[in-house]
Amino acid sequence: MEGNVEVLISREKVEARISELAREIEKDYANKDLICVGLLKGSVMFMSDLIKEISMDLRIDFMKVSSYGGGTNSTGVVKILKDVDLDLTGKDVLIVEDIIDTGLTIVNVKDFLKQKNPNSIKVCTLLDKPSRRLVEVEGEYVGFEIPDEFVVGYGLDLDEKYRNIPFVGKFVKK
Ligand code: IMP
Ligand code: MG
Questions:
Q1: pLDDT range class, residue 72, cuts 50, 70, 90
Q2: So which residues are the catalytic ones?
Q3: Is the per-residue pLDDT at 141 higher than 50?
Q4: Residue 98, ligand 1, Cβ within 6 A
Q5: Given a cut of 70, is residue 76 above it in pLDDT?
Q6: Is 67 exposed, middle or buried (0-12, 13-18, 19+ CB in 10 A)?
Q7: Residue 128: strand, helix, or coil
Q8: How crowded is residue 158: how many other Cβ atoms within 10 Å of its Cβ?
Q9: Ligand 1 pocket, 105 CB below 6 A?
Q10: Whether the CB of 139 sits within 6 Å of ligand 1
Q11: Topology classification of domain 3-173
């Protein structure tokens, strides 16, 4: 299985960076009412590693959204397949995502969650492909910026496979 995947960011590097992000988050959210909202399914491995490193009270929840259809520069086109369960009113929401690519998912999820009147909303993403953006959006916490290449592993999939690979890899056809 892993024979088709070349290491782009090793497990050790990912884990070290996750610890750094956790330290930043702890500092920024001291005395806040943190809810980490993971986007299914890609964020699962990152979210699980991240929250283990955050030494403070927090809550977790999950959302699932469908990917946008064919439209390119249109927003408001993701479908909410699973909403959060918790009440976000007055809470400090940190959206946890695997990768920001065009930015459409994050922009739409942020707009959707804003309607729930949280105190704040920020984004923590393991990976960022800034060169692919169609809408202007940034993550406040970014693990790694990567070039415009398709990556798998650490939660990211190709046709639902490779999510369990414990590093970020580049898919190579053999
Ligand atoms: P965006 O809405 O274009 O920012 O896309 C975000 C979603 O696209 C992510 O949550 C991923 O599920 C998926 N995605 C984008 N780039 C990649 C990649 O290189 N590998 C795997 N999934 C990706
Ligand atoms: Mg995905």
A1: very low
A2: 101
A3: yes
A4: yes
A5: no
A6: exposed
A7: strand
A8: 14
A9: yes
A10: no
A11: Rossmann fold (3.40.50)
Distance 31 CA to ligand 1 centre (A): 32
103 contacts: CB under 8 Å, gap ≥ 6: 133, 134, 135, 136, 137
Helix (H, G, I), strand (E, B) or coil at 63: strand
Strand, coil or helix: 151:
strand
Nearest to 97 by CA among 155, 52, 38: 38
Number of the ligand 1 atom closest to the C-alpha atom of 39: 10
Tell me whether strands 34-40 and 59-65 are parallel, antiparallel or unpaired.
Answer: parallel
Helix (H) or strand (E) holding 15: helix 11-28
Nearest-angstrom CA–CA distance, 95 and 97: 6
By the CB criterion, residues less than 5 angstroms from ion ligand 2 are 42
Ligand 2 center to residue 102 CA distance, Å?
A: 12
Answer yes or no: are the C-beta atoms of 169 and 8 closer than 8 Å: yes
Residue spans of the domains in the chain: they are 3-173
CA 67 to ligand 1: nearest atom: 2
Summary mean pLDDT of the chain = 93
